[in-house]
């Protein structure tokens, strides 16, 4: 099983697009799978990107500990603070 350490989302980001979290998810799966991000299927086939962004929004007063979903043969876990962990489902 391949597993990545959580991506540190506490780094300063400056002016970032709203979809940075979902973009980070795609890029992290691409990195783990050694695939170009453009070659991955759309994330919305696995999870609603807007809902994911809303659940893990910066400054959101949420009690969400984490959310886990399957994407392109990998298990993706996003913690309440935005850390991303990717592990192989094989």
Written overview of the protein:
The protein is an alpha+beta fold. It is built from two helices and three strands. It has a three-stranded antiparallel sheet, with helices on one face. A hairpin with a 2-residue loop joins β1 (66-71) and β2 (74-79). The termini are close together.
Structural features:
single chain, alpha+beta, 3 strands, globular
Q: What is the helix content?
A: 10-25%
Strand count, sense and barrel status of the largest sheet are: 3 strands, antiparallel
Class per helix and strand makeup: alpha+beta
Oligomeric state of this protein: single chain
Mean pLDDT: 81
Determine the N-to-C terminus distance. Answer: 6 Å
Largest sheet, spatial ordering of strands: 1-2-3
Cα gyration radius (Å): 12 Å
- Which blocks of ≥5 consecutive residues have pLDDT under 50? 8-16
Helical stretch tally: 2
Q: Count of DSSP E strands?
A: 3
Order of helices and strands: HHEEE
Q: Outline, from the CA principal axes?
A: globular
Please report which band the strand proportion falls in: under 5%, 5-15%, 15-25%, 25-35%, 35-45% or over 45%: 15-25%
Summarize the structure.
By secondary structure, the protein is of the alpha+beta class.
Q: How would you summarize the topology of this molecule?
A:
Blueprint: H1 20-33, H2 49-55, E1 66-71, E2 74-79, E3 84-88
């Amino acid at each position: 099983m391949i597993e990545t350490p959580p991506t540190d989302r506490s780094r300063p980001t400056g002016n970032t697009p709203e979809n940075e979290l979902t973009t980070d998810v795609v890029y992290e799966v691409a990195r783990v799978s050694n695939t170009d991000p453009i070659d991955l299927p759309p994330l919305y086939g696995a999870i609603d990107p807007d809902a994911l962004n809303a659940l893990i929004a910066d400054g959101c007063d949420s009690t969400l500990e984490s959310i886990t979903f399957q994407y392109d043969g990998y298990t993706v876990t996003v913690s309440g603070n935005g850390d991303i962990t990717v592990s192989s489902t094989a």
